[in-house]
Amino acid sequence: MISRTAQLRALPNYELLAFTRELSTLDWQQLTQADFDKIDRFIESDGCTGVPDFYRNGCVIHDWWYRTHRNLDATPISEKQADVGLKEYIISRSPLGRFSLISWWYYRGVRMFGKKAWRG
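The structure assignment produced for this chain is given below.
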């Protein structure tokens, strides 16, 4: 049986866009909770694998990037861009901002251990 990640990566852009056009925006920084919930169900996200889900929505969009290798507008995204996006998500929502240790821990974790997940 083909994995959900393999299915998502094989989707042509027009099919991904058919889904993302149902969201309130294609700007991942402006998504609503309802948008994150839709994405979560669509990609069958596992949230923040192996760590607490303090910033679950950030992990959901990170899972989107890792599972599709594309932004919400279907343009390609690199592994590093996806990882930086997760760090930026956490920084933007942390009371400590750029001084958030969690953002750095999550970022270092995905940079060190995310290669297998990126490759699928």
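Interim note for the steering committee: The chain is about 60% helix and 0% strand. The mean pLDDT is 93.
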